[in-house]
Amino acid sequence: VQLQASGGGLVQAGGSLRLSCAASERTFRTYTVGWFRQAPGKERDFVAGINWSGRVTHYAEFAQGRFTISRDDEKNLAFLQMNDLKSEDTAVYYCAADPSRPIRWSNWGEYAHWGQGTQVTVSS
Fold this sequence. Notes:
Elements: E1 3-6, E2 9-12, E3 17-23, E4 32-38, E5 45-50, E6 57-59, E7 67-72, E8 77-82, E9 91-98, E10 113-114, E11 118-123
């Protein structure tokens, strides 16, 4: 399955963005989806994940209470709603997917499919 992330941009601190991840195939609905981010010179960090059914989600500590992951399998889409953005959220955000069950949410090496990334820049 091919993934395409979109929705990034420039936003002021305290603002919101909603990232989208569009999948090319309906098999996407059976995949775990994760969002990761990578800032310049830093490692790729897990942000949030959602299981195939949409009933189980998992967040990095920095994302809890501010970010919400969701999916719309009728449209082959996943989303990351980001509120109260901070300058430290500036990074390239990637969506990833994998059919494996179970999966270690935060282990980016376990996700077989990746989107191209979308830049999020938060100005202070």
